[in-house]
């Protein structure tokens, strides 16, 4: 473990000498992620050590988080970055002194686990994690996306932003219409036909929520509307549509809500999704246009089941959806299109970009306000420049690993 700490501080020194001087920016998020992971390993190893060491590691870890945030925007703030790195250099020096001290303590303390044991524990832990994920994602679906078969514009409005949907699980035919990116009024239509026809005859039911929503990331799951509570950075409200009351609420952890999920969707800080496996949340990780973080939520208790740092960037993204446990992210280089899926994230590692054909959406003038999959009818519900759109999909069976 002392070795691990030594290695990490040596790594930081190397890191510093690579990036400074000149003050070149590490725009490579994989590097940032790697640094952060090193600290996590350290933390695990040292958890059993003395209080003082733990406090020290905590500080080190906070610092690495700060650095990773700064790296994300360092092009714009080179001087801030530079002074942070200078201060890191001081800390690294101190770290090396601490390492020597820890080495001295080694014989007398509980801190005597061997590197091998830590490695073995880590492997065991990884195997358990994988098992946990497999159990979590064990619904009876086995499709992956192959293409967009057709587009149908079901309604046109003047509102650039908004969201519309059916319940992703229960077989209610009702259609819900949430106009704009901040409001508390939900329109409920008895079915798709009523939604498509002029909404004045018969008038839709108006539901006034107790809280307003923020963005366009809402979903309906088993009679509950889940939405980002406007005015909070990361609170998700679970609203009972039948009782017309808040059922429950949660705060999405992991720094959720600090920045936009997708660069080209200017009001959504937390996106939610429903697929065959259940309820999910997507937010952007640290740094400007960081990587997307995917979180699986237990819809009953609102507990976090698992969270993944994905390889998909928020930069140039406009929307994403989950289909059978795989995240598909839609990008458009300037927001105008072409709209194309160029990044997928599969927690089980079966589907990756090389399995995808050229996944283009039909060309549209503007980026989508939302694109959500409905696992019940297996199609996408989208909102583009005031148009409410259904995309029908082409899927095939997932390939099996091994
Ligand atoms: C990280 O940044 C916060 C806010 O800028 C600051 O209060 C804190 O001291 C920093 N932590 C470390 C270890 O530098
Ligand atoms: C997944 O579910 C099937 C039946 O639904 C079961 O046979 C299988 O053991 C489960 N796999 C895991 C890893 O839980
Ligand atoms: C909220 O939505 C209602 C109905 O869709 C609309 O009449 C109202 O102007 C909206 N309010 C705001 C603040 O956008």
UniProtKB/TrEMBL annotation:
Superkingdom, taxonomy of origin: Eukaryota
Q: Where is the signal peptide?
A: 1-26
Q: Which PROSITE patterns match?
A: OLF
Q: Which Pfam families match?
A: OLF
Q: Which GO terms describe its cellular component?
A: extracellular space
Q: Is Secreted there in the keyword field?
A: yes
> Which protein is depicted?
Olfactomedin-like protein 1
Q: Which SMART domains match?
A: OLF
Organism placement in taxonomy? Eukaryota, Metazoa, Chordata, Craniata, Vertebrata
Residue ranges of every copy of the Olfactomedin-like domain listed in the record: 140-397
GO terms for biological process, alphabetical: signal transduction
């Amino acid at each position: 473990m002392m070795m691990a700490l030594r290695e990490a501080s040596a790594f930081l020194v190397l890191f510093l000498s690579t990036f400074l001087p000149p003050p070149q920016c590490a725009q490579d998020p994989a590097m940032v992620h790697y640094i952060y992971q090193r600290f996590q390993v350290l933390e695990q190893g040292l958890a059993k050590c003395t209080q003082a060491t733990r406090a020290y590691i905590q500080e080190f870890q906070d610092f690495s988080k700060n650095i990773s945030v700064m790296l994300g925007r360092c092009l714009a703030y080179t001087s801030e970055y530079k002074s942070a790195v200078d201060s890191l250099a001081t800390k690294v020096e101190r770290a090396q002194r601490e390492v020597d001290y820890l080495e001295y303590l080694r014989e007398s303390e509980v801190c005597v686990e061997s590197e091998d044991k830590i490695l073995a524990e880590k492997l065991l832990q990884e195997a358990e994690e994988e098992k946990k994920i497999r159990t979590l994602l064990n619904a009876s679906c086995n499709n992956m996306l192959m293409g967009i078969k057709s587009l149908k514009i079901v309604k046109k409005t003047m509102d650039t932003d908004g969201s519309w949907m059916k319940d992703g699980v229960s077989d209610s035919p009702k259609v819900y219409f949430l106009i704009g990116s901040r409001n508390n009024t939900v329109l409920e239509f008895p079915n798709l036909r009523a939604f498509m026809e002029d909404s004045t005859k018969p008038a839709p039911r108006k539901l006034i929520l107790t809280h307003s929503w923020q963005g366009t990331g809402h979903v309906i799951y088993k009679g509950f509307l889940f939405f980002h509570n406007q005015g909070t950075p990361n609170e998700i409200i679970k609203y009972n549509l039948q009782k017309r009351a808040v059922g429950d609420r949660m705060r999405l952890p992991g720094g959720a809500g600090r920045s936009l999920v997708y660069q080209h969707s200017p009001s959504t800080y937390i996106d939610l999704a429903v697929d065959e496996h259940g309820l999910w949340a997507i937010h952007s990780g640290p740094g400007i246009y960081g990587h997307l973080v995917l979180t699986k939520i237990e819809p009953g208790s609102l507990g976090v089941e698992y969270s993944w740092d994905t390889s998909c960037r928020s930069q140039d993204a406009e929307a994403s959806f989950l289909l059978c446990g795989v995240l598909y992210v839609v990008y458009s280089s300037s927001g105008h299109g072409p709209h194309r899926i160029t990044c997928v994230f599969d927690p089980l590692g079966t589907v990756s970009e090389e399995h995808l054909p050229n996944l283009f959406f039909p060309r549209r003038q503007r980026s989508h306000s939302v694109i959500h999959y409905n696992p019940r009818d297996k199609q996408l519900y989208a909102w583009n420049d005031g148009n409410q759109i259904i995309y029908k999909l082409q899927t095939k069976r997932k390939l099996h690993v091994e």
